[in-house]
Design goal:
six-stranded antiparallel barrel; conserved putative lor/sdh protein from methanococcus maripaludis s2 fold; 4 domains; alpha+beta; six-stranded antiparallel sheet; 385 residues; Elongation Factor Tu (Ef-tu), domain 3; single chain
Amino acid sequence: MPRYIRSGLLAVLAVPVLLGITACSPQEQAAAASEHPKQPVDVAPVLVTDVTDWSTFTTRLQSPDRIELRPRVTGIIDQVHFDEGSLVREDQLLITLDRRTFAAEVARLEAREKAAQAALDQASMEAERGTSLRSANAISAERADARRFLATQRRAELASVQAELKAARLNLEFTEIRAPISGRISNAFITQGNAVRANDTVLTRLVSTNKVYAYFDIDERSWNSKFSNITASNNLAAFLQLNGEDGFQHQGTLDFIDNTVDPQSGTLRVRATFPVDSAQLRPGAFARIRIAPQSARARVLVPEKTIGTDLNNRFVLAVDENNVLQYRPVVTGIRVGGLRVIESGLEAGDRVAVNGPARVGPGMPVDPRPVKIEAPKKTLVVAGA
């Protein structure tokens, strides 16, 4: 190809390239860059709702009165009068022992009492007569004193017999074993015809049923941070849940706080009392107890997945008015369902990236997709800390 033709062709090809370079101004380049698609992100305003800071503990229910019935006298069971597992009333007859031996002892001592009374009457009459005769100098002072001392002796003998008779009558009364309190009785451990020993053999057990106790331990740190101003007289509400129940259906009050912290475990023993509003509230049952130091108050909540962690802080990515992600360090609180309370770092009206910091980062412009944070059905129920 001729040299002049090659030069002209190069010049022609260079013109469009220069025109293309000079056509893209800095403003147009920025506009072109801004047209790149932004990362779509689910964005929601923080949830503000009332939350109660519940603390939950586990325990076994106890009866205020738990009695092991034992006989006060040794004997043979004659009859069992109660239905096993039934409710019994105070002073109801439960078991009788064979009373014949005890009745015979009472009869013997009653006879001795009569004899002692007769001897006392005779000695008293002779003492009075001796006093009269002594005043008339008919008997010596020694004989008069002897009659008086004999009357005193007979009086002491009568008192001794009467004391034995009182004990025998008590033993006869003790052959009837009665309920000391109203409550629910267990089964008969020893049945008719068996021998029992005084104050030793356990016949059955009886528990009161009008209320139950729930003792549980609170660690020292939690007590000092949440409950230090609580006293037994405050009647702090407590709620109870049994195994198999959906909610905390039973309400009672915190009515006992121990006077010392256990130095071995670092815990404080407290007690909640619950009226027996259900047949399921039985002593020995496993239960969960929840208490809160104060009433519900408005709190900021976000989903757990919204919160990230770096070397120093827990943080969320807030979305500003220009739809740019901003790094926000936060202090987290209790968990409520799938949400977490934010103690500081966010406030009502703030928007956060619900997807969390895994896909995006601070300073990144995003394409917000509005979503809503759903409140838990029961914002008063804290699933855990």
